[in-house]
TrEMBL record:
InterPro entries: Ig-like_fold, Peptidase_C11. This is Peptidase C11 clostripain. Keywords: Membrane, Transmembrane, Transmembrane helix. It comes from Marine Group III euryarchaeote. The chain crosses the membrane at residues 845-864.
Length: 869
């Protein structure tokens, strides 16, 4: 590839958050025969294609053969297609298949298997993992899917998720194998909490898609090459999700749907189940007062092709938005945190014009509109509070029968609740919130005697507050909900809040930016803010900042309520040796303070030795190239850099290596500083040069727009990314694929040679492989033969076709030829000219008939011209 380069200077800072730790390898299989080490990866595919996906099964087998098994991976497939006696077991080789007799797997098996029988899955796994063992075992279940209800359809047969669980349990019992590394579903709608929870004991990770998958499914030719000896578990999990989503996002694989994919850590599913149960308990309890609001939350939450499957994360957000109960909001927050802990990888992409999946977060949950499916009750997840909530959907709700009379008063510093209740209420729940919605107090009180307990709440700060009082009966149903808003508390004190933003560095463009970790010798300052969040002016303010060796003092005569000011130490810090330093800042004033704890702040300053740097590079397509109106549209790619833990500030040069005939239309960067602020810089071409880009952050996103030239051959083109740090050392590399779509075009011309013979020139002016059919229309009395009438042409190839055996009565004849694309029949060009037999050569022309037909976004150029040889 001839490189065209964008050079950008990146100032990249350390991300302080540690990487997510993955579980250990668990029960890995040992060495084969105690001698040779096993392949790293066992990739076992249960391909149920005896249905409308039969052709796709064949396609995916071809994709697998493009890579095949080697010393690092075993690719083993059990496949059944739409035919009789066509079940087969293969070890997939590079460009080949090694078949095993089915009777060797199970002596009772014939050549037509029922893939919907769980014993078939069990026996396949027993054979595949024993005959082709590996250190890490991946099971892929391939077919149509409909969530927990069915997958692996074969006629009227199919597997349910409990049947899969039973098959896996039997397989492990017989073989003594530990849990699989990954269970993946190359099937629709299998990204459900209930599915992952059902299979949690049999794999370290579970994969699924919330939405429909395109018929093309996983892109095995993109995924399998990434499974090598040095590939880690974390990299494998990233590859499974990213190779699938990115293949459709960048257009290298056509597909008719938006795509979603996630991988869940099964070790985190029990805590997630507990929080979902709590969320269900709260939703059930409020049905008596807020059923309509809960229904609205469901109706507006992210949905996929099955309306009973709702995105779990989005549902909790919508419930908090529609339902006024703080208990529901808190329960939803717990669910989202537990789901985040369980999610290892998640990606989604909305195909333009198809279902919007922008609110997909990786897991759906079963939430029918009314009566649930009987299959739901067979699931291990169908217990606890969520099960109770599902049961209540089809039940007649009890009517509220208890009520409360509440009085809430404020006396400057206190909020006091008192009152009474009627009927058989059993429990009182209180929530005190500030104006940002933060829960500052949460209390529960058991009731008896008809009087509410007198409750006094004492907020730490002045401000406006809201108090929610919820009344429940003995069965947990909400009976009444009292809300008091605008409760003003005034402590009549200042409230100084000190914050250390962190080390501040300067960049050549004159800005100063909040950094993270620093390298030895880097000049920096310390900066932050001090604000008064109280109701009284603070006077004679003293602020002392120290790093343990030096101290800096700041003074302000006063700071009025609601105002803040910045502080910055001198630019003199550069002599600190590598190590950790505690920076502290303490403020005082002449009066007392609402919250003395907020008068101080501390910050751990990290200085690391000088050394090389490393950055993780990821890329995602925002727009893909299309062929429209005779030209390509740009591909827009978002490139993200993440600095590895333990490195300091660095200037990094970024190089993009792309075909020299392409043009870089525009680039812009979105930069996240260590303080969370986001900046934007732009880069625009100036006579072939590009302005340097400064990235003041540990995370930087570069948006680059590439325009392929019309001379680009259809198919994938790799763009390289490389980083060079300030020590002229490599700081990371990566690549992404730009898929150039095919356009079709034909040119047809003719030339008469000196000896009177004629030659046609058939040119594929399109950028992809083309099959061309050449036909002739001759007047009566003239005969001639074409040396070639059916031809395969490479992109931009011209083929000569000789006209031989020309015979007829002496004279001039009008002859016509037509070249037509077999792949795109509407692309056709006709050529008509005068051909003389005997006598003088007649070089007059009848203008060629040009047909430039466009269909399905394809444009044909049909050009006829005479060439004299």
């Amino acid at each position: 590839m001839s490189p065209g380069r964008l050079v950008a200077l990146l100032l990249a800072l350390l991300l302080l958050a540690p990487p997510v730790a993955l579980p250990g390898p668990g029960a890995l299989l040992g060495l084969a025969g105690g001698e040779e080490p096993l392949p790293k990866w066992g990739f076992y595919v249960y391909m149920a294609g005896d249905n409308s996906l039969s052709e796709e099964a064949a396609d995916d087998l071809f994709e697998m053969q493009a890579v095949g098994s080697n010393e690092n991976r075993e690719v083993v497939v059990l496949v059944d297609q739409e035919g009789e006696n066509d079940s087969r077991a293969y070890r997939v080789l590079h460009e080949g298949l090694e078949e095993s007799a089915l009777s060797n797997i199970n002596s009772d098996w014939g050549d037509e298997l029922d893939m919907g029988d769980p014993s078939t899955l069990r026996d396949f796994l027993k054979w595949a993992t024993t005959e082709y063992p590996a250190q890490e075992r991946i099971l892929v279940i391939w077919d149509h899917g409909n969530g927990f209800k069915r997958v692996a359809e074969d006629g009227g047969s199919y597997l349910t998720v409990p049947e899969i669980e039973g098959a896996l349990a039997e397989y492990r019992s017989v073989t003594g194998h530990g849990p699989l590394t990954l269970i993946g579903f190359d099937a629709c709608l299998m990204g459900m909490f209930e599915i992952a929870y059902e299979l949690r004991e049999h794999a370290a990770y579970i994969h699924g898609s919330e939405a429909y998958e395109p018929q093309e499914g996983w892109t095995y030719n993109h995924l399998l090459p990434l499974l090598g000896a040095e590939t880690t578990r974390e990299q494998m999990l990233e590859a499974v999700v990213h190779s699938y989503v990115e293949s459709y996002r960048n257009g290298s694989v056509p597909g008719g749907y938006s795509v979603t994919a996630t991988i869940i850590d099964t070790a985190q599913l029990e805590p997630l189940h507990e929080t979902i149960s709590g969320f269900g308990t709260e939703l059930r309890a409020i049905q008596t007062l807020y059923r309509d609001e809960v229904d609205e939350a469901r109706a507006n939450s992210q949905v996929f092709e099955n309306s009973a499957y709702r995105d779990l994360h989005d549902l909790t957000l919508l419930a908090a938005e529609w339902v006024p109960s703080p208990a529901v909001r808190l329960a939803g927050e717990s669910v989202r945190q537990a789901q985040a802990n369980a999610t290892v990888v998640e990606e989604h992409w909305t195909k333009p014009g198809r279902r919007d999946v922008s609110n997909a977060h990786g897991l759906t949950i079963y939430y029918p509109a009314s009566t649930p499916s009987s299959k739901y009750f067979d699931l291990a997840a169908a217990t606890g509070g969520w099960r109770d909530f599902i049961d209540a959907l089809a039940s007649e709700l009890p009517q509220p029968h208890a009520s409360l009379t509440a009085e809430v008063v404020t006396d400057g510093a206190n909020i006091t609740l008192s009152g009474s209740y009627s009927d058989d209420a059993a429990r009182l729940e209180l929530f005190l919130q500030d104006t940002d919605g933060n829960i500052l107090a949460h209390e529960e009180h058991m009731l008896g005697g008809g009087a509410l307990p007198t409750v006094m709440l004492q907020p730490d700060r002045s401000g406006s507050y809201r108090l929610d009082v919820l009344l429940y009966d003995n069965d947990g149903w909400l009976q009444d909900h009292y809300i008091a808003e605008g409760l003003m508390v005034d402590l009549q004190l200042p409230d100084l809040v000190v914050e250390i933003a962190g080390p501040v560095i300067g960049v050549p463009n004159g800005q100063w930016l909040i950094a993270g970790t620093l390298s030895e010798g880097h000049t920096f300052s310390l900066g932050g803010t001090i604000s008064n969040q109280g109701t009284v002016t603070a006077t004679d303010i003293q602020l002392v900042v120290t790093d343990g060796e030096e101290a800096w003092q700041f003074q302000w005569p006063e700071l009025t309520p609601g105002n803040s000011t910045e502080w910055l130490t001198p630019w003199e810090l550069s002599n600190l040796a590598a190590g950790n330093y505690t920076v502290s800042a303490i403020a005082t004033n002449t009066a007392s303070d609402e919250d003395p704890a907020s008068n101080m702040d501390s910050y751990m300053l990290q200085i690391v030795p000088l050394g090389s740097h490393s950055y993780q590079i990821t890329s995602n397509h925002v727009n893909i190239t299309q062929f429209e109106d005779g030209d390509f549209s740009p591909t827009v790619v978002n490139i993200t850099l993440d600095g590895d833990t333990g490195q300091g500030v660095a200037f990094v040069e970024l190089l993009l290596d792309y075909p020299v005939t392409w043009s870089l239309q525009d680039t812009s960067s979105y930069l996240t500083g260590a303080d969370g602020n986001v900046f934007r810089d732009g880069i625009f071409s100036v006579e072939g040069a590009y302005t340097p880009l400064f990235v003041p952050a540990g995370t930087a996103s570069l948006l680059a727009s590439f325009l392929p030239s019309l001379s680009s051959v259809a198919g994938p083109h790799e763009v390289g990314i490389s980083l060079i740090d300030h020590n002229n050392l490599s700081a990371g590399s990566s690549s992404f694929t730009v898929n150039v779509p095919q356009y079709h075009g034909l040119q047809l011309s003719a030339a008469e040679q000196d000896n009177g013979d004629w030659t046609l020139f058939v040119e594929n002016s399109g950028n992809g492989q083309e099959t061309v059919i050449l036909t002739k229309v001759l007047p009566e009395g003239l005969t001639l033969h074409l040396s070639d009438s059916y031809m395969q042409l490479a992109p931009f190839e011209t083929r000569e076709v000789r006209l031989s055996g020309i015979a007829g009565v002496e004279g001039s004849y009008s002859v016509s030829f037509s070249a037509q694309s077999q792949l795109q029949p509407e692309v056709q060009v006709n050529l008509t000219f005068e051909l003389s037999v005997g006598g003088e050569v007649n070089s007059s022309w009848i203008p060629a008939l040009l047909l430039g037909l466009a269909g399905g976004g394809v444009v044909a150029w049909a050009v006829a011209r005479r060439q004299l040889l």
